[in-house]
Amino acid sequence: MKNKQDQAGSTGENAKQAAPQIGLPPVITVKQLADQMGVSGIEIIKQLMRNGIMANINQSLDYEAAAKLVTDFGFTAKRLHIPVHGKTSIAAKGAKLHSRPPVITIMGHVDHGKTSLLDAIRQTNVAGGEAGAITQHIGAYQIEMKGRKITFLDTPGHEAFTAMRARGARATDIAVLVVAADDGVMPQTIEALDHARAAGVSIVVALNKIDKPDANPDRIKQQLADLGVLIEEWGGDIICVPVSAKKKLGIDDLLENLLLVADMLELKAEWDCPAEGVVIEAKLDKNRGPLATVLIQKGVLKPSDNIVIGTVAGKIKAMFNYAGKNIRKAEPATPAEILGMNSVPEAGEIFQVVAGEKEAKALVEKNRDSGIGASSARGISLTAVAAQASAGEIKDLNIILKTDVHGSIEPIKDSLERLSSDKTRVKVIHTGSGSITESDILLAMASKAVIVGFNSKPEPGASKLAEQESISIRQYSVIYKLIEDVEKALKGLLEPEFADIVVGQAEVKTVFEAGKKGQIAGSQIKEGKATRDSQVRVIRGGKVIAESRVSGLRRFKDDVKEVTTGMECGVKLDSFNDFETGDILQFVRREQID
Length: 594
Ligand code: GDP
Ligand code: MG
Description:
The protein has about 600 residues and is of the alpha+beta class. It has 15 helices and 30 strands.
């Protein structure tokens, strides 16, 4: 704001006709004024507060109030006599949109106070003083501030957030980034920030633990600035609120600012339509059956509605709010716990209300056929990028870069982003040192990113998830090779490479002569599995003495596709008939690295 004022002031002094003039009708909304002056709505609302006017973004101002504001910002006001018609926000074709509460997720480094903050907010501001009545946690709750509702997702952390996004759900409007003032920006602070940015949600910083004697807010503001998070005090537009979750300080201030950002976002939902939303949490209750917490995103959910969630169907038997109270309806941005599904859906899945049981059945079938219900978002492989590039179809390439040491990040990131051209923008959406984690895989899924490891390997859990979700991970130990591959991919020139993956090992126990057909190796699987479609390496005395395709795999008299660890089987190879007892058969599958 300072800059703008200075600029406006100096141009005003130097050249009269260049003095920025703002035309003001008899009434104008805060938003229209913000657009005209090119300043953020938040700045306007704050300036209005200083002028003693409490306003939200859609509020109309009369000429006097608007003119004062215009001068405050260094412009001159010009009175217009034409009224401005209509509201600023136009409803989607025919659909009636109404404003709805904001949905907030709390993120940040471990132990910086996410859970404490959620608790503090719940205890101080829960609607109707029901905090004490809350007996169980349902994954979300709603509070009231100045007669307005705010919904909090009580599944803190960016992993849960991105896991939902990876399933195609966009539940959060604003991410509160909690940073402990005595500890500062930590690896997971950066990770949370990257995840929130990749999702394009608004960010508000809560500077927590300010009650601590060693709290050092200025140091943290500097660290945030270094990450490109410029808070208002430093000339940026990110709101930063000092709080203490423990001493319950600054909580109302945080909530008011969340409402301010919500106003800026002009959050709206359709009310008059079949309800739709997203699953926040779900579990099987021993007594009550499948139980899910859903967040309504449009329409109003009612008991006895027929719903479909992926391949799960049901008729709502009962509905509860976050305090466990029976409710008769749930409006947009309201969390509700529902009973009556035929099985347990997954977090992040979308629910839809349908007309009746028949329609539910049909939709479940359709979803099953199209694979909805499994994750709907997928990462992208570098070879797929190459294919798209040669078809001229790639605009953005998102990359997640993990390295062994911190020092390698910047040079690699720079080289990668320098590969951007006017056709394709290369964006490194997240970097970090250490191994590739599950959270990296989720981010890759949610943001269609390629994961690149430089001397960095995936953790076992991450490998498993990557395989399950077909997310490709490229690992390198030479920087130029890494950059070259990405460059080739962008030019559509990266050829798929293949690698031999050992899927199992067997030991030959007996050799059967099968006449003209050759030999059958009676073997026992020692590790992994033997598969019919493998290539086999015959190893004797530690050396590979032959390699051949499997031409027969049998268990007793039956032809089988695979045999697993511990079991015995008969193996016949295409072009090898000199087995000896004690030979090791290594089953190898060729896989494309992508
Ligand atoms: P989370 O891992 O981010 O969920 O962090 P927790 O909410 O579990 O808090 C971690 C620790 O910090 C706990 O021991 C809290 O009591 C403490 N803590 C949280 N907020 C504050 C605060 O505002 N002031 C102080 N002094 N301690 C806090
Ligand atoms: Mg916690």
